[in-house]
């Protein structure tokens, strides 16, 4: 969206296009670490009928594929694992970087997407996913 500032039109630094470009750069930087989880991600994706790239994107954005974690925890010790499950979620399954954990986080993702689809059936898939 454009804003007017002192009579000039400028694009917000946090526009959708800018965020998308930033996400893409982050994901590209995380590709080396994501390779370690390629097969667990693909197995979980196949089981849940998800695109493996979606799971990988969540892992990249939530924890930078573990780069920012201390023993699986975020710096504030409020979220756990590659997919950053909050303390409000049920007990995490498996180790923070295990296939079980990826499966649990992906199941939560599917439930969340289903909730948005139920509330907004007229939205496109992209809108629902966003």
Automatic annotation (TrEMBL):
Any GO CC annotation of this UniProt entry: extracellular region
Main localization, broad class: secreted
Q: Which UniProt keywords apply?
A: Antimicrobial, Bacteriolytic enzyme, Disulfide bond, Glycosidase, Hydrolase, Secreted
Which SUPFAM superfamilies does the entry link to?
Answer: Lysozyme-like (SSF53955)
Q: Which InterPro entries match?
A: Glyco_hydro_23 (IPR002152), Lysozyme-like_dom_sf (IPR023346)
Give this protein's Gene Ontology molecular function annotations: lysozyme activity
What is this enzyme's catalytic activity, as reactions? Answer: Hydrolysis of (1->4)-beta-linkages between N-acetylmuramic acid and N-acetyl-D-glucosamine residues in a peptidoglycan and between N-acetyl-D-glucosamine residues in chitodextrins
Q: What class of enzyme is it?
A: hydrolase
Subcellular location, in the record's words? Secreted
Q: What is its EC number?
A: 3.2.1.17
Which top-rank group of organisms is this from?
Eukaryota
Look up the record and give one Gene Ontology term from the biological process aspect: defense response to Gram-positive bacterium
The record's similarity note reads: Belongs to the glycosyl hydrolase 23 family.
What this protein is called in its record is: Lysozyme g
Supply the source organism for this entry: Anhinga rufa (African darter)
Lineage, broadest ranks: Eukaryota, Metazoa, Chordata, Craniata, Vertebrata
Q: Which gene encodes it?
A: Lyg_2
